[in-house]
Design a protein that fits this description.
Blueprint lengths: L1 H10 L8 E3 L4 E3 L5 E2 L3 E6 L5 E6 L1
Antiparallel strand pairs: 1-2, 2-3, 4-5
Length: 57
């Protein structure tokens, strides 16, 4: 069962782990060779007060 989930994960082109990240350009290249650039950056605050920065591509 675990191997089936792993295969699905590896085949899912929507997972950022399955994309190439270009650090110098701050973008991802997906399996369809499309360049995903930063659309927005937001800050979220948790109930405990921790702030995290979320980048939307």
């Amino acid at each position: 069962m675990k191997n089936q989930k792993l295969k699905k994960f590896k085949k899912n082109i929507g997972n950022k782990e399955n994309m190439t990240y270009l650090k110098d350009e701050d973008c991802y290249i997906c399996a369809n060779s499309q360049r995903l650039t930063v659309k927005s950056v937001t800050t979220k605050k948790s109930k405990s007060g921790y702030k995290s920065e979320i980048t939307i591509y």
